[in-house]
Design goal:
The complex is a heterohexamer, with two copies of chain A (381 residues), two copies of chain B (456 residues) and two copies of chain C (92 residues). Chain A has 381 residues and is α/β, with parallel strands linked by helices. Chain A is built from twelve helices and 19 strands. In chain A, helix 1 runs parallel beside helix 10 (323-341) and helix 5 packs antiparallel against helix 10. Chain B is 60% helix and 7% strand. Chain B is built from 18 helices and six strands. Classes of the chains: A alpha/beta (381), B alpha/beta (456), C mainly alpha (92). The complex binds NADP nicotinamide-adenine-dinucleotide phosphate (2 copies) and nicotinamide-adenine-dinucleotide (2 copies).
Chain lengths: 381, 456, 92, 381, 456, 92
């Protein structure tokens, strides 16, 4: 290890309910091997995800309580604390989820200490950046879990079974929001034999839903296409109309899984309390968007509440339910991003690259992400 | 009498019609049109011969034609479907007789050279054999005669002698044999035909008819040679060649060489005593046959069972259903509640193969449908369609409701053998006259069916 | 027509017959047999010729019988084949 | 309703953890309609399974606290209490599960009061009796649940997924005991995309396992065929050898599901504590046989315990987890059996019928089930 | 000179050999043997003509044959694979010339009647057209001449006039035309052939060659008529009939009627200016072609993408793989990490179709394999095999690792159109000379491929 | 041989050619074209006959040229077809 090696620090995640870790040993090995970096890991960083310190040591990482001190690159799952940021080296770079709207103080700290910070959720959804796309990789975990939890909580069979003791009809599953998580939920529920239908506002969604074998619910509403492949927020009137048209579909469903989101905005309210109440007793609602406002009225993150006999399960850090594999996927995303940052063994982010430009929040004392900058300016810097 | 070139051209056209007819007959899609083209050709030929050639004795000829045609037409209209094969035998026989008569008359009254005389003798021989053989075949199919092969001590010597005598007469004739020999040749040949067909087993008679059909084709071709008529040559050869091939194909479909079928009985009477094979007869068929049954049905109900699971043939079954549906055939799946080896076994399999749920019918709702189904396709199932459940008190399945597959117009089983299913009891339905068996692993069989249905 | 020419015709016709029939499904065997049998009824043409040229009364009678037999074959053959083929009619 | 109508009573199940009910409204309708019986239901009998009293009333049942009094036919899920038996009419008939070995006092009471009793678990496993085969219908529920719980509890994906963030390998599921429950568990795990293998001692099992698409583990041990399609108990030596041969397969599994049983005997011990300990941390073990002794050492019914990082989940009344549909299936089985008992509107069990003879425990003051009779004789009457 | 009947029989045998040869050539399995049988027939014919018939001027004839044979053999051995079509054109042309020469000499020196003279004139016409047309075709394929259709003002009038003059000469000759007319006829016919082929577009030249091939077959048949030689009649007719059918089949494979190909250019020069179609040429093929490519490969790698999911063709893909494996072909699936529209999309689909996990290869492990693959079958994928990811900085996929499908010996795309995929950028690989496109919904195309591979 | 007989031969041969070629895959079009072209090289037989009966020197020369041309067609045709067909060889 020469003195000029870039030091990458992996903190132990401290936020509640976070069981993932930003780099798993395999990813550490990839970075030290390919990019020639030095990796330092806080003790117990991978414990909750099933990776012990010895595993990190074996691939050449230093396990140390001072891992963050003077590190040039911090890679985390959740955003670092302002205190952690201060411990880093001058001009250090951070990579993590960074929901800027909710983390304005942190953004200020990053800007004011001259850190360069990248937000994983801002990686553009373009083909070449898919290897760094943590939103996708974690949404896949969440979608799979959503379907599985629905199947496990529903006091009925998912599949159709014709038996000597009578026929068990298949469960009806409705998925609202057919992005990455929604599609995975559809596919998983279909595997289990449920009758699955789905709705989404994007124009491409119908074909995508059918491409995983489910029925698309045609509502005869105009599509809501945003930028970068995302959806746009619906006006109040259209939202209400959509709820109205969806009501009978919701009422007919045994299990409802919602995943709708619009980037940078609270999750759209797709299902009202009345719509839940109209479902059969014993039905199950899984709201993956519960943390960001909820698609379902009354859903509470991390809780399963009973609404007139219907169980409403609100997701909270769902990927942490499969912490090992979710971490492995996230770590690959991070490692791919790190490889983009490191040129000839040195940290040299090329901010003219579309991908880095897209996900860079602060750099050289400036906030580069326009919406965040505007937010800060509104709040008075 | 060799017509002018206009007539010859017309005859050529008739020959072309016949070729087109045979072409058409080789696929169910075009068979009827083909037959019609052939008939049109025949009409053209008759018109030419009567109006253009204007034979002597026109009225007598016309009368003979009208009588013969009327007999043929009435017979063809009246015959019941199941008697078709013997009808074909009769038609074939009279055709052979006509050819033989031509040659005999030409020998007696004409002035042919040696070569032509030889061919004429050959024509008489083969035509007479076709005639008498066909008549015996007819008698046996019509049950005017026992269906069992008739074997007597020394049968092969008798046949051998008769053959030798006939051939001798046939050879002597052209090289200066006396005219009465013609009569002897006719008599000997007729006898030969009888001796030829008598020892053939009842089930093999259709193959013999096909062979005799080829014979009468050759008779026609040979008489064409005698009369120097290309149309007869071409038409006769067509029939002779296709009949020969057809005989081979039919024997192949029965899994036996032609010679074994024809001369098996001479080989020591071994087929005489053995009644075991007809003890519990089943009808097995090739994938092509089953494909035609399916491909020309209106409504097919699939009844899958444990064998589908063993063969992991669920994807193949769905493929077949898709192929049938593409042909506009109504297809559904009858799911017996205990099919397979675990509750919902068929559901798991068919869901894996992406069969839409609405195609799966519960037993109670599908059972009334079988009556209107053209084919019940039983894929690796056995107990769940075994009528013993209704009729055999004391059997381990007595009283169990079963799929009413036996009510379908025809039933096809895809299984590997005649072995019973889980309950270990025989299935009468396998021996039903409406039932056809396609032996083999269900996945293989279904694969073949898909291919064959596609090529219909 | 010389012998070899007739032989050529024969060989070619045999090829045509063989080519056309090969690969036929066994379910069509019966109608095919019957259809080709009908074609051999064209021997009628030959019988008419013979009836026309026959000299003795016996010969004429025999020839006329042959005409009738061949007519049975020709007419009956095509009709019976058609009946069999009705089973294969395709619904629309 | 004429006076001679047979009265069928449905008790509210009182045993702990039992959420099923012996007749669901649909089955009630079938009996009153087809067999012309009168059905009386205890209040709240179907509540835990999601069937309210009104639903029973609607199909013509009488909902009453005195349902059992003087009833000629009692149909329950769990065995009745001796007190309940006393309330029935003279010569009454009972249908329920009746594990005679564990219920000798009840059997005595049934015998001594001259009741005719039928045990659902003794219905012969022959084709024509499948409609009455509650073991099958409930095992199907249990097998489905077992696979689903394994999938939900395992902190890994079941399916293989090749993604931009790396490949998620499929989970390996091992099923021991491939009877009705085992096959259903296999099928369900396979649907979810796991790599499934299974083992069973019966000779037919290999083909059956393959018929649901899984690999059969060949151990090169002779099959253990019992009577009636059941397995036979293994001798100690063979059992030990089987465990030894299975050990590497168990160690390689991410999820282990056991369902092995031998009728009338405690469940065979297939997996020792050492074998569990050799599994990877985070693995899951589902023991459906926990209640009857357990296939897995240390499994406790109704509990999920941690054995060195491996979760061992012991089943307890697993069908009650899908109480509505399990009840519906059970009710169909019961109704089919009742129809066999009732001839021209009167209870007239024909005990020469192979099915009834097989499952009749007591009749006319005698114990008809030979093993039970022997047990009772051994205990001195 | 009409040989005795032994010779005639030998010729008949030769004709049978030729029929067998053509039969064999219609399937890849039997083609080589068939060709050998044809060659054997040809040798027999030569032996008979030289040894049995013993023509005058035997030595000169022998010498001419040796020279011609040597030239043919050397040319056939030397020619590079890509020049095969022009070689065939040359051979065809010289054959036509030979036939025309026979007829011309017979007209000048023989004493034929009017009918035979008419046929001879026809032979000269058609043989000469076959010759000169083939030569022009050769020149264009060999790039001795521009590949573009040559159109000049009034082209159709010139062609029409030449045709009329030629036909007039041909008609006059038998009805008493002077001998010098033979020369005129030859000249006119040669010119006609040139005029006939010049305006045909470069890509259509192979179809014209096929038509000229049929012409030379007819020439041979007609010269057989002139010489009263049945062998020539049969062989020539065989070639004429099969060549005519072949021409139609080829035109159909290109989706255009024959007349349009031949005379399109006369119809106003519309194909002259339009360079658009050759702008970004792609090669599309029929399912049968692709089936042969696949069925005779050693190793096939499937690269599925979003289109597979849209078409829900996973079962069909598995069926095809199964069919190929049954033929002993190594098949695997290359799964690109972002194929489809959700992570693991291909896994979900292929698991549903029961594709064993060990057949799925990750990109990194399969990429080195493409080099040794005979066919990369890209099923509804686009971006994930787009070489722009390697070569086009600035494209939205630049830098993304892709499946190295372009390294396979040949690439087949199953897609519906030339539309791009998710990233919205063109795919150079579609225009690669190694690439073949099979247009259509992936499920339909795969279904057809399964059927076609089965019938290989 | 009379004209109609030759016509019959012609028609039958045409049928054979048509039957045999129908339903050929387009990948075989080129070898098939080349193979049938080779067959038409049998015109060699005709050229030899003509060379044998030719009278004038010009005619003899022309006929011999025709012999040579036909030989090119016959020999080259079969050989080049064989080369093409090697591509379709099946591994064992
Ligand atoms: N559903 C349940 O829960 C359950 C549980 C246990 C037992 N059972 C019993 O299982 C039986 C189910 O009836 P079933 O009709 O589905 O099955 P079955 O009566 O056992 O018959 C299955 C048939 O499939 C054929 N077969 C096996 N492998 C095949 C292959 N690879 N390809 C083609 N055919 C194959 C066998 O004939 P060949 O050997 O001649 O091919 C056999 O006759 C009932 O008796 C039922 O009571 C059901
Ligand atoms: N995997 C993920 O998580 C994910 C998520 C979102 C986006 N993406 C992006 O999606 C792309 C995936 O690449 P890809 O190669 O799989 O797909 P692709 O580039 O989108 O190409 C799909 C191709 O399939 C063809 N197609 C569509 N329907 C068809 C049908 N019914 N039959 C036959 N062909 C059909 C289309 O051509 P025709 O229209 O001509 O038929 C199209 O060119 C990448 O750019 C990736 O970044 C991936
Ligand atoms: N190019 C790539 O590499 C790539 C990778 C992954 C995802 N993507 C694309 O990104 C897009 C977003 O995927 P995501 O899962 O991150 O989306 P997301 O999490 O932002 O939203 C989830 C889904 O909710 C839907 N939605 C929003 N408002 C809704 C409403 N009112 N009602 C119903 N549905 C509503 C959205 O359309 C989206 O499909 C998709 O188009 C996906 O194909 C692209
Ligand atoms: N005919 C019918 O209608 C019908 C219906 C259902 C089931 N059955 C048959 O009944 C039989 C029993 O099914 P079940 O599920 O009730 O059985 P069960 O619950 O008694 O046992 C479950 C499985 O454990 C297996 N087992 C026992 N000891 C074992 C050991 N030491 N190691 C591994 N496995 C062991 C048994 O073989 C059985 O497959 C099966 O053969 C089934 O096919 C028949």
């Amino acid at each position: 290890m020469s003195a000029v090696q870039v030091v990458v620090a992996v903190p132990r995640e401290t936020r509640e309910h976070e069981r993932r870790v930003a780099l798993v040993p395999a990813a550490v090995g990839k970075l030290t091997g390919l990019a020639g970096l030095q990796v330092r890991v806080e003790p117990g960083a991978g414990a909750a995800a099933g990776f012990d310190d010895a595993g990190y040591a074996k691939v050449g990482a230093t396990v140390s309580g001072e891992a963050l001190d003077e590190a040039q690159l911090l890679v985390g799952v959740q955003p670092p604390t302002p205190e952690q940021v201060k411990r880093l080296a001058e001009g250090a770079v951070t990579i993590s989820y960074l929901p800027t709207g909710a983390e304005l103080p942190l953004v200020r700290a990053l800007r004011d200490t001259g850190r360069t910070s990248f937000a994983m959720e801002l990686v553009p959804r373009i083909s070449r950046a898919q290897g760094m796309d943590a939103l996708s990789s974690q949404a896949m975990v969440a979608g799979y879990r959503a379907a599985l939890i629905a199947a496990e909580r529903l006091p009925r069979f998912f599949p159709l079974l014709m038996t000597a003791a009578g026929t068990v009809p298949p469960a009806r599953v409705l998925v609202l929001g057919a992005g990455v998580a929604g599609l995975q939920a559809i596919a998983t529920a279909r595997r289990l034999g449920a009758l699955v239908s789905a709705y989404d506002v994007r124009a491409a969604a119908a074909e995508e839903v059918r491409s995983v074998g489910a029925d698309f619910v045609e509502l005869d509403l105009p599509p809501l296409e945003g930028t970068g492949g995302y959806a746009r927020e619906a006006g109040a009137e259209r939202a209400a109309r959509q709820r109205e048209l969806l009501a009978p579909h919701v009422a007919a469903a045994d299990a409802l899984i919602t995943t709708a989101a619009v980037p940078g905005r609270p999750a759209p309210l797709l299902v009202t309390e009345e719509m839940v109440a109209a479902m059969k007793p014993g039905s199950v609602v899984i709201d993956l968007a519960a943390e960001s406002g909820g698609n379902v009225a009354g859903a509470r993150p991390g809780e399963a509440i009973d609404v007139g006999g219907v169980m409403v399960w609100g997701g909270r850090n769902v990927p942490s339910q499969l912490p090992g594999q979710a971490s492995a996927l996230y770590a690959t995303n991070v490692a791919n991003l790190v490889q983009l940052l490191v040129v000839d063994g040195a940290l040299a982010p090329d901010l003219s690259d579309e991908v880095l430009a897209g996900c860079c929040v602060t750099h050289a004392g400036e906030v580069r992400h326009a919406p965040t900058r505007e937010l800060l300016e509104k709040e008075g810097g | 009498m060799t017509g002018d070139s206009g007539t010859a051209l017309a005859y050529l056209l008739v020959a072309v019609c016949f070729i087109v007819a045979l072409k058409g007959l080789s696929s169910p899609r075009t068979a009827r049109v083909g037959n019609a083209v052939g008939a049109a050709g025949a009409v053209l030929a008759v018109v030419v011969i009567l109006l253009v050639e204007r034979p002597d004795r026109l009225l007598a000829v016309l009368a003979a034609m009208v009588v013969g045609g009327a007999v043929g037409a009435v017979a063809a209209r009246r015959v019941v479907m199941t008697a078709m094969p013997q009808m074909v035998a009769v038609f074939n026989g009279v055709g052979g007789a006509a050819g033989a008569t031509i040659a005999a008359l030409e020998m007696v009254e004409g002035t042919p050279d040696t070569g032509r005389l030889a061919v004429a003798a050959f024509t008489v021989l083969i035509g007479a054999v076709a005639f008498s053989g066909s008549m015996v075949a007819f008698a046996r199919l019509q049950e005017l005669m026992s269906g069992r092969p008739l074997i007597y001590p020394g049968a092969r010597w008798v046949f051998g002698l008769a053959l030798a005598a006939t051939v001798a007469a046939g050879v002597w004739l052209p090289w200066g044999g006396p005219t009465w020999l013609v009569g002897a040749l006719v008599g000997l040949s007729l006898g030969l035909g009888v001796l030829f067909v008598l020892p053939v087993g009842g089930a093999d008679v259709p193959i013999v008819i096909s062979l005799l059909n080829a014979f009468s084709g050759i008779t026609v071709a040979a008489s064409g040679y005698v009369l120097e008529n290309t149309l007869l040559i071409v038409a006769g050869t067509l029939v002779g060649a296709s009949g020969t091939l057809l005989t081979r194909l039919m024997a192949k479909a029965m899994g036996r060489p032609v010679t074994n079928i024809l001369f098996g009985a001479f080989a020591g009477g071994s087929t005489l005593g053995g009644g075991a094979e007809t003890d519990r007869p089943v009808r097995s068929a090739s994938a092509e046959d089953v494909a035609i049954l399916l491909g020309y049905a209106r409504k097919v109900i699939m009844a899958p069972g444990y064998g589908l699971a063993v063969a992991q043939a669920q994807h193949a079954l769905r493929d077949l259903a898709g192929e049938l549906e593409r042909r506009g055939i109504e297809v559904s799946y009858a799911i017996h509640p205990v099919a397979g080896r675990m509750p919902g076994h068929m559901n798991v399999l068919l869901a894996e193969a992406d069969v839409p749920y609405d195609k799966l019918k519960e037993m109670d709702s599908v059972n009334p449908e079988f009556k209107t189904a053209d084919v019940a396709l039983v894929v690796g199932a056995n107990d769940v369609v075994n009528p013993a459940a209704r009729s055999a008190p004391g059997s381990p399945i007595y009283g169990m409701p079963i799929l009413a597959a036996d009510e379908a117009k025809s039933i096809v089983f895809l299984k590997r053998s005649l072995r019973p299913g889980f309950a270990g009891i025989e299935n009468e339905l396998l021996h039903d006259p409406k039932t056809t068996l396609l032996f083999g692993d269900a996945k293989d069989s279904l694969g073949k069916l898909v291919t064959s249905v596609k090529s219909l | 027509m010389d012998g070899v020419a007739l032989l050529t015709v024969f060989v070619l016709a045999a090829f045509v017959g063989y080519e056309v029939i090969s690969k036929v499904s066994s379910t069509l065997h019966t109608p095919l047999m019957s259809g080709s049998n009908a074609i051999s009824g064209i021997v009628l043409v030959g019988t008419v010729i013979i009836a026309s040229v026959a000299e003795s009364a016996v010969a004429v009678t025999l020839a006329l019988v042959a005409v009738a037999l061949a007519s049975v074959n020709l007419v009956g053959g095509f009709l019976v084949t058609d009946r069999m083929l009705q089973m294969f009619r395709r619904r629309s």
